[in-house]
Design brief:
10 strands; alpha+beta; three-stranded antiparallel beta sheet
Length: 192
């Protein structure tokens, strides 16, 4: 039987020290994962991320397309009878195209004289956001939970999603700025 030399034995020891050690894999407890995630500058452990997602957190929203600049200058010929109501002309401000449908903004010019039989129809809009600002004149409207309100030049209001509302009367010179999200939405007329 051959005798091992000392150099061979020490080189095997050095190789054993240099080799990566196998560590038993254990799953971190929720407490350990929370501690690791809570330390500033450290990313959460993968198992901690999985735990957060599995608890019903929504996935991140998809990225929207890059918006464009929208510039609109006042021109009388831009007021058109192509909007939601037949008793109004709309001047589209180009926001819907620039935001790829995220929002719409237009100036609404109500046509005189106000005919309550035509305009006073209770309705709702399926929107995420709606704001109206009176540029000129006045408008009297009904908003569910608020009642009748007179809005004059400089007045502004929001209409929460699906709030029941209607126009009751308006001045012959009324102009409104309306901003709505999303650009396209459903309107439902209600029976009184």
């Amino acid at each position: 039987m051959a005798k091992k030399s000392r150099s061979t034995t020490s080189s095997s020891r050095a190789a054993a020290k240099a080799a990566p050690r196998k560590v038993a894999k254990t799953r971190p407890t929720a407490k350990t994962a929370a501690k690791t995630a809570a330390k500033p500058g450290r990313a959460a452990a993968p198992s901690a991320r999985k735990a957060l997602v599995s608890k019903g957190r929504p996935a991140p929203a998809p990225r929207r397309r890059k918006q464009k600049v929208a510039i609109s200058h006042h021109r009388e010929e831009d007021f058109r009878a192509d909007g939601l109501r037949a008793y109004a002309h709309y001047r589209d401000l180009g926001i819907a195209d620039a935001t790829h449908g995220l929002a719409r903004a237009h100036v609404i010019r109500m046509l005189p004289p106000c005919n309550p039989q035509e305009v006073s129809k209770l309705h709702t809009h399926a929107v995420d956001f709606q704001m109206v600002y009176v540029l000129k004149g006045w408008v009297r409207s009904y908003l569910e939970g608020v009642g009748e309100t007179l809005m004059k030049e400089g007045s502004c209001w929001t209409q929460p999603p699906k709030i029941r509302h209607m126009i009751l009367d308006y001045s012959d010179d009324v102009e409104l700025l309306e901003v709505i999200l999303p650009a396209d939405f459903k309107t439902v007329e209600l029976s009184t």
